[in-house]
Design goal:
By secondary structure, the chain is mainly alpha-helical. It has helices spanning about 1-20, 25-55, 60-95, 100-125, 130-135, 140-155, 160-175, 175-200, 205-230, 240-245, 245-280, 285-300, 300-320, 325-350, 350-355, 365-395, 400-425, 430-455. It is globular, with a radius of gyration of 22 Å.
């Protein structure tokens, strides 16, 4: 009878040692992490289901969706980056105990992100033709027709997802991750249910997917604003706060958000260029990349949740100027993230073939999918965490310019150039493109780790 109690006591001592400090304790970290983990699991899981559903419409449909999603990620990442700036500023004000400025920072994040998303969406609609021709002109006519429909529909939905991301980002900043989880679940569950109706039931293909994505995102945006104005008990944000731009607050948010947005543009621009390499390899290569990316996303569920949690944790630590706690938590999150990849690998590999069968792939590409997934899964254990967890911590402390510059340079000098050399010049195909990505993780992870071990990142002031 004593043994379980001893184990519980040892577990608490372990958590206290590695995940508790003066700024925040392990109970608060767990309450932050669990909703984000559930959120990430639902997002990735529903993305897997959506990809499987659209694959029933044929290889051309899944290829078009994968192509445009690379462009969507590029455009959406700009305003999501700015919402991350809002998360950092809100978290630091929360850590300093200034509730009035927490409210102002929330309003500033929502208004600035929404305005940015509106213009980006307008750009995607007006210039959809040139964008498709320049980026994916080598695709087949059937793939291009589906891509055009999906790009216009996605661009229309940007404002909706921007409102949701900005509100969720602010809620994560104050540690209210359960509310952000509910908003995310509303958006993603409605999306997958409507996809089931429009794609599997009414056989509307890619057009049905675009209808579903708009309804789900704008419904979630309405719910986010209702929560912010009517249901929240502490932020006290009013409609007039969103309309009256606070330029000082906007400057603080943009000081974090804009370098991160530039990083995301260059980073995802490199991904688009890589996607162009893949398009030139043929429709089967596009499908292999799409399915491999979805499986890699499943592997990254816990690690991505840890990365998002760490932004709030380090932000609040630096808001109270407790550098010792910030350093301690970053180290703990790094090894925990790496351990999560081992666990996910043990869970997923036995079910590889049943998972892949959901996508109805041609038999010829199943071997390539397994090889890409195996190489990437092994590489993620030592490389992903230092490459993505560490910059989240640096950015939360205000060191966004350095992280952005390193990410941009490593992407273009290593992933893009090396991807072209290995994939196209040396004729390694899709495997070469993914190997280049893994190499790039190692390079930038090494640089970020050296920065973290130094002192420059803790000297920044956001508030």
């Amino acid at each position: 009878m004593l043994e379980p109690k001893v184990k519980v006591k040892q577990g608490r001592l372990f958590l206290d040692k590695h995940f508790s400090g003066e700024s925040i304790d392990y109970r608060q970290i767990i309450s932050l992490f669990i909703p984000l983990l559930v959120d990430q699991a639902f997002v990735v899981g529903l993305n897997l289901v959506n990809t499987a559903m659209i694959s029933s419409s044929g290889v051309a449909a899944i290829s078009a969706v994968n192509m445009i999603d690379s462009l969507n990620i590029f455009l959406i990442s700009v305003f999501i980056a700015v919402s991350t700036g809002g998360t950092v500023v809100v978290a630091q004000y929360k850590g300093s105990g200034n509730e009035l400025m927490v409210s102002k920072a929330t309003a500033g994040a929502v208004s600035s992100v929404s305005m940015m998303a509106f213009f980006i969406g307008l750009f995607g609609i007006v210039f959809h033709g040139p964008l498709l021709n320049v980026l994916f002109g080598a695709a087949s006519p059937e793939v291009m027709d589906n891509a055009r429909t999906y790009l216009i529909g996605s661009s229309l939905s940007y404002l909706g997802i921007a409102v949701v991301e900005a509100v969720c980002g602010a809620l994560r900043g104050i540690g209210r991750t359960r509310a952000s989880l509910v908003l995310s679940l509303i958006m993603n569950l409605v999306y997958v249910l409507l996809n089931f109706v429009f794609i599997n039931g009414l056989h509307m293909g890619v057009f049905g997917m675009t209808v579903a994505i708009n309804i789900s995102r704008y419904l979630a945006a309405v719910c986010a604003l209702v929560y912010l104005f009517r249901l929240d008990s502490s932020l006290h944000v009013k409609i007039r706060d969103l309309l009256a731009l606070n330029w000082t607050m906007l400057k603080r948010i943009m000081s974090i958000g804009l370098p991160f947005a530039a990083e995301q543009m260059f980073f995802n621009g490199g991904k688009i260029l890589t996607q162009i390499f893949i398009v030139s390899l043929g429709t089967y290569a596009i499908a292999t990349n799409a399915i491999s990316s979805t499986l890699a996303g499943v592997m990254q569920i816990p690690a991505n949740a840890l990365s998002l949690t760490l932004i709030t944790v380090v932000g609040q630590c630096m808001g109270s100027r407790n550098v010792k706690d910030a350093r301690k938590f970053v180290k703990s999150f790094l090894w925990l993230s790496s351990a999560s990849f081992v666990l996910m690998g043990l869970l997923i590999f036995p079910f590889f073939h049943p998972l892949v069968s959901l996508f109805h792939p041609p038999a010829e590409i199943v071997g390539d999918i397994f090889l890409v997934f195996l190489i990437n899964s092994l590489a993620q254990i030592p490389l992903w965490s230092v490459s993505f967890i560490t910059p989240s911590a640096l950015r939360a402390a205000g060191d966004s310019k350095f992280t952005s510059m390193v990410s941009m340079l490593s992407m273009w000098l290593f992933r893009v150039v090396l991807g072209y050399v290995l994939g196209i010049v040396l004729n390694m195909g899709i495997v070469g493109v993914w190997l280049a990505m893994n190499c790039e993780w190692g390079v930038r992870g090494f640089i970020f780790l050296r920065r973290f071990l130094g002192e420059k990142w803790v000297k920044h002031r956001v508030i």
